[in-house]
Design brief:
The chain has helices at 11-26, 32-39, 43-46, 48-71, 73-93, 97-106, 112-124, 127-141, 143-159, 162-182, 194-205, 208-237, 243-267, 273-296, 302-329, 335-360, 366-399. With 400 residues, it is mainly α.
Length: 400
Amino acid sequence: MFQAATTPPRFATLVLLTGLATLSLNMFLPSLPAMAEEFQVDYALVSLAIAGYLGITAFLQIIIGPLSDRYGRRPVLLAALLVFAIASTACALATDVYVFLAFRVLQGAIVSGWAISLAVVRDTRDPQEAASVVGFISMCMAVAPMLGPMVGGVLDELFGWRANFIAYAVLGTVALLLCWADLGETNQNRSATLRRQMQIYPQLLANTRFWGYAVCSAFSTGAFYVFLAGTPLVAAVEFDMAPSTLGFFMGTITAGFMFGSFLSGRFAKRTALPTMMVLGRTVACGGLAAGLVLLAAGLLDKSLFFAATVFVGIGNGLTMPSSNTGAVSVRPDLAGSASGLTGALTVGAGAILTTVTGLAVSAGNGVYMLLTIMLLSSAVGLAAALFVRRAEGVLAGQAT
């Protein structure tokens, strides 16, 4: 019934892969307090389900990228989906927090869905067209993480937190079958050996333009990770929100991302990549700065807090398609490696930022500290975007 695919994947398949990679991070977040209570551990320990997950995905993407450049996109992705489905089942059955955390780390294999999808798009399109396609993919896939916290909160209230991980296992199995039947190989320029692939890897590491794009991606997304790590505590302590209500409000930042991605899909084809990046970073920083001003004036409540953070979503939607496409376009022959390394830097920065958030955000300073950390992360992304714009201008001048 399911024949192995031999042609490039459909748009819908790429949307599912990227959506599932994000959904695996945020759907269960409203359940963190309940998980800590059932396992009888501190919230800080169970929150390692975020930081530990991000840490392992950073490591995995460094490997996944070169492997997909050498052996192809298809076999690497199929193996990753199988690991994700098995690990999700184990998480749902775990009775010990450390067993749960171990298999939660293995769920990080799903990060290959985003990294390889980005490489697949770049395999078949030029840079600005790829940025437009990535924008539309991001817009469509944003429905999943936007609904994820809402659905996760409802599943928790109806069936308990384990229902979230059963849902992950089912979705992972569906994605595995779909990719077997629809995702044909797109990497037509594979290296002769993995050793040869690793020998040219330093050429990517030495490219300052690549690092500008990658750092912009990492710290733009970093503000979103900070939001995910700190908002459940802030919502419970400062705003006294139920899990289902929290899930709805946490989805607003992804709604903003969806809108920003739509704008990217519309305008990236005729707008320079660095220009889109700077615009997105300006929007994110402006919204967070306005939130801090309102907080200083004593006017910030839960609606205004989430209104400020939604600008991070909009800004990321404008920035990320162009910054990710730029990173994999610096060396098209290393698209998989560049995608993996960018993803590794992104989740590595996210792991650090979520850990810092967990240590810095408390009941006494929650809203103020959370917005401040998000603004600092977004500002680093803005600085990187400005660097890229200058570097691309210099390169264009040298070409003429």
